[in-house]
Amino acid sequence: MSRKGKVLVAMSGGIDSTVVALMLHEQGYEVVGITMKTWDYAASGGGKKETGCCNLDSFNDARQAAVDHGFPHYVLDIREEFGNFVIDNFVEEYMAGRTPNPCVLCNTHIKWAALLKRANALDCEFIATGHYVKVREENSRYVISKAKDLTKDQSYVLWGLGQESLSRSLYPLGDYLKTDVRQLAFDIGYKELAKKAESYEICFVPDNDYRGFLKRRIPSLETSLADGNFVSADGKVIGKHKGYPFYTIGQRKGLDVTFGKPMYVTKIIPETNTVMLGEEHELQQQKMMVSGLNLIKYPAITDGMSAVTKIRYKDAGAESVLDNEDGMVSVAFSHQVKGIAPGQSAVFYEGDDVIGGGIIRNVIE
User: Fold this and answer.
1) How far is the C-alpha of 119 from the C-alpha of 74, rounded, in Å?
2) How far apart are CA 34 and CA 40, in angstroms?
3) pTM here?
4) CA 255/CA 265 separation, integer angstroms
5) Residue 65 belongs to what H/E stretch?
6) SS3 call for 316
7) Catalytic residue among 53, 103, 106, 124
8) Do the Cβ atoms of 225 and 215 come closer than 8 Å?
9) CA dihedral of residues 6, 39, 167, 105 (deg, nearest 10)
């Protein structure tokens, strides 16, 4: 029996999760490695090589690290658990004119649930991942806060985790810079891993072509929605588009129409297959509604609560005031913010701590 306890480590085969497994092993935990296969890209009809976290090379890299250091490793096939929920939501959100965030949904409803289920079966007290984030206990609640390396901080994508998941999760990289982690991998002897490029693709869209993915899922999409209207804010038709699901709020490139000045997607109206375009200043908004809340630091949002709200992963965040309204939370920013996209996550911060988050439902104009 380990003096620290038994921990199930999610190992993607990448540098971060590998270093976490070896770090915990060195610290005296009884480590069990697990690599989750969420998606078989060949099943989607994609023409490019499978990449990212679900390819054979990644599985082998994870297994080799476990063999090198003498702890068990398993490959867990969760394609069935993953597929219907995450993929169907991804497609449904685009068909509703929204921009989904499938990684948040997967973390919240699939990966951590799968990890905890297997941790219980293997008598593991903890689970661990290579996310750059910190978790602490405060006032009988487990609180997520930003990592030391703000350029790698992943607190935004973990807002959906519940207290049970957080209470059993270890995040050893929260106090490290990415450069430190690469050096650790190099020092341990994993020189190639230390130089390994990171994958930022959605696992089931490894070629980053979500439009192609939608076309493969709904073969009639390209013809049934072709020749929709681009319109200006006053309703004037200013061009034709290929179908509203193929556009996202803030998009400028790929419109295939010349206007003589930069134009951006400002609104998507699925009911009429309409995409509204405007100049950059027309992307500025000041209020939105957020639903599907998960609260972390506090058990409830109090009306008038101040928070810094992020509307996308790389967003710096903006000062805002939160209020409860019709079962959702209204977010009023102190100044206009650019490109609020329904379907994306809104995450509320108090300093470095995550208050909670939800899904952007609509913009209040």
Assistant:
1) 12
2) 18
3) 0.92
4) 9
5) helix 56-69
6) coil
7) 106
8) no
9) 180
Cβ–Cβ < 8 Å for 334, 308: no
pLDDT surpasses 70 at 51: no
124 catalytically annotated: no
Which two tokens mark 326? 């019709």
150 φ/ψ angles, rounded to the nearest 5 degrees = -70, -20
**pLDDT confidence bin for 42, thresholds 50/70/90:** low
Given a contact cutoff of 8 angstroms between Cβ atoms, the answer to whether 103 and 62 are in contact is no
- Helix orientation angle between 15-27 and 178-188, rounded to the nearest 10 degrees: 70
What's the whole-number average pLDDT of the chain? 91
Helix orientation angle between 15-27 and 56-69, rounded to the nearest 10 degrees: 20
Q: Which amino acid is at 18?
A: T
Q: Assign residue 139 a region: left if phi > 0, alpha if psi is -120 to 50, beta otherwise? A: left
Under 8 Å between Cβ of 101 and 343: yes
Residue 103 is among the residues annotated as catalytic for this protein: no
